[in-house]
Amino acid sequence: MLLVPPGKESPKVPYLLNLVYVVLIVLSLPWLLYQAVRKGKYREGFAEKFLGWTPRRTTTGPCVWFHAVSVGEMNLLGPLLRRIAEERPDWQCVVSTTTMTGMALAKKRYPHLTVFYCPLDFSWAVRAAMARIRPAALVLAELELWPNLVRTAGESGARVAVINGRLSEHSFRGYCRIRPLVADLLRRIDSICVQDEVYAQRFRRLGAPEGVVHVTGSMKYDGAETDRDNTHTRQLASLAGFGDGDIVFLAGSTQEPEESVALEVYRQLRDRWPQLRLVIVPRHPDRFEAVARLLERSGLSWQRRTRLEAQGADPTARVLLVDAVGELGAWWGTARIAFVGGSMGSRGGQNMIEPAAYGAAVCFGSNTRNFRDIVAAMLQRDAAIVVRDQDDLADFVRQCLEQPAFAAELGRRARELVISQLGATRRTFERLTLLVGGTADRESNRHVAA
User: Fold this and answer.
1) At residue 4, does pLDDT exceed 50?
2) CB 3.0-4.6 Å disulfide test: which of 49, 79, 157, 369 passes with 425?
3) What is the count of structural domains for the chain?
4) What pLDDT shows up at residue 443?
5) What is the CATH number of the domain that holds 279?
6) What pLDDT does residue 170 have?
7) Taking 50 as the threshold, does the pLDDT of residue 317 lie above it?
8) How far apart are CA 406 and CA 362, in angstroms?
9) Does 314 lie in the same domain as 190?
């Protein structure tokens, strides 16, 4: 890649990037084919991804293109999109994603919006997508910076923003190795809204202009439901046959071997506490069947979420496998005891805000590097417990069962922490209003010129 000052970039740069991407795809082809054949991945959206043939916008007025990589980023857009619909109905919002799970969730959560697969970062694909969508602004959730996409957005007249920005220490060290390239890319972004001052300083050190970086807080707090009595949670609890006397222990966003760990903990405690129910929600849909086989081998009576409507809740089944996408947020509302997965393996943890917001007694493993700031805040307020292995998890669940007051107090502190952090969505919306407001005239002119 050639390093040149912004605004004087060699036209060869996009084509060099294209060559790099092609080489990477060729090298990864055996793995990609395996994923496509065995797990059904990467089959959908070929024309959108490789050719940029996204849905063509025919309306006038400001259009805001939101890009969310997968489920986590897609969920955090919810409160922001609702605020936009209420306060700026003149904006047309479209949403792109990268993964099949992200697409499934987008269609389910935002059926009134245009959703599509984001084009891969080939110059021809992103140019075609920009021409078809004509966005006034491209808004990237958290940190999904693709050089051709960002560059082409600017060249087409769209402003570019990062919202809910985060930059882990590990990613920061990696970007520092290619700082001149990253700095050039960051200077093309008009607004970077980050979760805290630590992330802000990392963006600035990588070359983001001072006036472009704004601390707006974490939108993930705003996206969390705090009322257990919400309609969706009540419906799911009724569907699963949960009674008032049941105590739900939910292991969510799990990876291997966390399902077997949670299952063994339940097995140890179920005889003494027959009111205990176990709910397992694997992080990735492609593991639903593997977890189902694990439950089948366990000898315990269990049921699938996807069969509850047709079969009804089995009163003898005290274990539930949630083999559905996009429901975890509501299922957390049924839990009194919560284990947040992805934290006993190598993934680096999953979002623990949702169970905390409901006031569940929250625990997670020791590997939570992806959520260091949230974990630090929860531990500082004694609002969560770290469990390092199966024995620790069993001790935690047992203590919650033996000492309901302990569990209730842990949950109360967690819920109060979430409530104290609310407001990031409003601050982010205000930044976007300033950004998109400056593009309305240009968007109208582009449409007339076309």
Assistant:
1) no
2) 79
3) 2
4) 46
5) 3.40.50.2000
6) 85
7) yes
8) 12
9) no
pTM above 0.85, yes or no: no
Does 409 lie in the same domain as 330? yes
Answer yes or no: is pLDDT of 7 > 50: no
Q: Kindly report, residue by residue over 262-312, the tens digit of the pLDDT.
A: 999 999 999 999 999 999 999 999 999 999 999 999 999 999 999 999 999
